[in-house]
Design brief:
Strand order of the largest sheet: 8-9-10-12-11
Oligomer: single chain
Distance between the termini: 90 Å
Strand content: 15-25%
Number of strands: 12
Helix content: 25-40%
Number of domains: 2
Shape: globular
Structural class: alpha+beta
Radius of gyration: 25 Å
Length: about 300
């Protein structure tokens, strides 16, 4: 039987020759951007970056941020050390020798920490300013981005499915606060960590952000013209004291000098989209803050446009 089996196998291979082909599957191309580009990369998925002739695979923007700063730090420790010890109100705010100075941070080295609980745009802004201090060319830092469609947004347990469930829960609360025909009336639950509401001024909008370690409510200036965004921000900043007095709280005013957009925001810490017990607090925060922004801040914007 074994001899017959061997004979049949050899006979089959003679008749049906194993096909030989030169075909190779097409390598998936990644989108590339540099630190010099002004494209909005928030929400995009990073796969790797190249800098100083070295390619580094990464899975998050935070990981890229940390690694690039560590490369710079190793090259010249004095620059970042000076920032960490400074009390000036500039890029130094992102560095500290005190780990507890930030809600979330990573160590660069030698007990120096960088603030990581920031947006992708903010991280890129910090890198742009660091590159100036180190006399590095922004075009030398290249990001390789994955196709967002690679991630299965409907996969149970994925962050996309979690976000969609949170917005499905939160949107009715937000929409009720703004009333019928309000800024978020035509908004649907999203797979992203943000949803936008509009108030009739092109390129400017309200934004709710839900992260794994915080929630934010924002007023965003994001027209195609950087100058128009900065002008609108500056006009509003002139009324900073009276706006914060009416709101009864201090706001974060982020002009974003190194990026195209600007924003004003308030942040709720120590909550997570991952904890459903936080959802009511987050949804009420998003609803109350964006409605107050609409009532107090939007009239100033409308007067200028």
């Amino acid at each position: 039987m074994e001899e017959r089996s061997g004979y049949l196998t050899n006979r089959a291979l003679t008749i049906w020759v194993t096909p030989v082909t030169s075909f190779e599957p097409e390598e998936k191309q990644l989108d590339t951007y540099t630190l010099e580009d002004e494209d909005e990369l928030t929400g995009r998925l990073i796969a790797k970056f190249t800098f100083k002739n070295t390619e580094q695979p990464v899975s998050t923007w935070v990981e890229m941020f940390q690694k690039v700063i560590q490369i710079l730090y190793i090259e010249d420790k004095s620059v970042i050390t000076k920032l960490a010890l400074s009390e000036e109100d500039n890029i130094a705010l992102h560095f500290s020798t005190n780990k507890d100075a930030f809600t979330k941070s990573m160590e660069i080295g030698d007990g120096i920490y960088v603030w990581t609980n920031t947006s992708t745009a903010s991280k890129l802004s910090v890198l742009n300013r660091l590159f100036k201090l180190y006399d590095e060319e922004p075009a030398e830092l290249v990001f390789y981005l994955r196709d967002d469609r690679e991630a299965n947004e409907d996969e149970p347990g994925s962050r996309y499915e979690l976000r969609r469930r949170y917005w499905t829960y939160a949107l009715p609360i937000i929409q009720k606060a703004h009333g019928a025909g309000g800024s978020f009336s035509n908004v649907n639950p999203s797979r992203d960590n943000w949803i936008n509401g509009f108030f009739g001024v092109g390129g400017f909008y309200l934004c709710c952000v839900a992260n794994f370690d915080a929630a934010r409510a924002e007023v965003v200036f994001s027209r195609s013209s950087k100058d128009e965004n900065k002008a609108a921000f500056d006009s509003l900043y002139a009324h900073k004291s009276e706006i914060e007095a009416v709101l009864g709280t201090a706001l974060h005013w982020n002009r974003g000098d190194d990026i195209k957009s600007s924003k004003i925001y308030i942040q709720l810490n120590n909550v997570s989209i991952e904890n459903e017990t936080d959802w009511l607090q987050m949804a009420n925060f998003h609803a109350d803050c964006t409605k107050k922004f609409y009532d107090v801040i939007v009239p100033y914007i409308a007067k200028q446009n």
